[in-house]
Amino acid sequence: MPKVAPEQLEKRREEILDAGEKIYRAHGFLGVTIKQISTELTCTRPAIYRYFETKEEILLALLVREYGRWLESLRKIEPDAGRCSKEELAHAIAKTLESRDLMLRILHMNLYEIEQNSRVEAVSEFKTMYSRLGERLSGILQRYSPAIGEREIRSLIMSLISFLFGVYSFVFSSEKQRAAVQMAGIEMPDITIHEMVFRFLCCLLPGKDS
Question: CA 147, CA 133: separation in Å to the nearest integer?
């Protein structure tokens, strides 16, 4: 069997992730299957299993990719964090999450089941990315206000991450959910990811003198 170049292997892996993302966005967690993904590609199911053992591992890899993209956005705002007011930093961080709807959807709806049905090595890759993200956020907060202690920084990061697990359902809803809310006589706020995160961070972040 001819040896495949590393860049070709990475290209095929990205194609699998792209196909998984397309199906997940259109049909949700239950609609994603290895068979369905193979129909979006030029490779067979056995070829997909060279990269991922389960559909959950594909979705977990998607989440890792999304975290990596968020990490890169945060990296760009870190150098200027020390010159930001509380509102400016809240806006900057909120802006990095505007296009991370896929990440927020997976976190909100499917993370537990995905981790339970993935190999420990795949889960470890996600946890490593999660740790890197925490380090980046810590760096931003330290630049924003050196007076913030390490314990408070950890608490702030945990609060933000926990908050993000619930954002998706407030911003995105199905027709059935909207109809049910209307039937229940509940006023459904029209709000964006940016606005929710911005408001939360304005309450969460300490002032510069803290």
Answer: 21
C-alpha closest to that of 84 among 206, 185, 173, 166: 206
- Give the Cα separation of 103 and 110 in Å (integer): 10
Residue 48 has which token pair?
A: 């997909």
What are 149-163's pLDDT values in tens digits? Answer: 999 999 999 999 999
- Residue 129 to residues 42, 119, 191, Cα–Cα distance (Å): 30, 16, 29
Phi-psi region of 189 (alpha: psi -120 to 50; beta: other; left: phi over 0): beta
Residue 80 near residue 116 (C-beta atoms within 8 A): no
The pTM for the full model equals 0.91
d(CA 93, CA 53): 35
Could you give the CA distance from residue 208 to residue 200 in angstroms, rounded to a whole number? 17
Phi-psi region of 28 (alpha: psi -120 to 50; beta: other; left: phi over 0): left
**Cα–Cα distance measured from residue 80 to residue 168, given in angstroms and rounded to the nearest whole number:** 28
> How far is 55 from 17, CA to CA, in rounded Å?
10
Residues, the chain, total?
210
91 sits in which H/E element: helix 86-96
Instruction: Look at the block and give the residue holding tokens 């407030």.
Output: 170
pLDDT in tens, 107-132: 999 999 999 999 999 999 999 999 99
